[in-house]
Amino acid sequence: MKPAMLRRGMNFWPPFFFAGIRVTHIAEDWRTVDVELRQRRLNMNYVGVHFGGSIFSMTDPFLMLMLMNILPRDYTIWDKSARIDFLKPGKGTLRTKIRVTDEMLEEVRAATPNESDVFRPTWSILVEDAEGVTVAKIDKTLHIRRRKDERRRLGG
């Protein structure tokens, strides 16, 4: 799928649309995704700041999706776990810039030379308010491994 098509689709995906989450950019090479969360009555908690689930949701699928589109098809990539630290109450429009760097890709390749190798990196995503102050840090752990070569296994 092309990045622009995914961006448009995700902006109308009900969990994002109703939470006020908007994907503003997906790079053609899949290495950059920018997301914003606008504060609305539907995504505020009892004390008038962003609901924590919405803050997490704005980061949730992207590292996995980005790696699935960057790495060759012989990789299996899954979200394994996540942890969120709320550093400051989130108010107004929140933004995150999710990046896959050359260093991250080199880590994956070095850790998964064979199909028996499993790599579980934990990478951080920061969410900032309009002033650039970090309001949340999300640590995402992924499960990455190479798939078995079916042709070799079947003798073909």
TrEMBL record:
The keyword Membrane applies. The chain crosses the membrane at residues 50-71. Gene3D superfamilies: Hotdog Thioesterase (3.10.129.10). The keyword Transmembrane applies. Keywords: Membrane, Transmembrane, Transmembrane helix. InterPro entries: DUF4442, HotDog_dom_sf. This is DUF4442 domain-containing protein. It comes from Notoacmeibacter ruber.
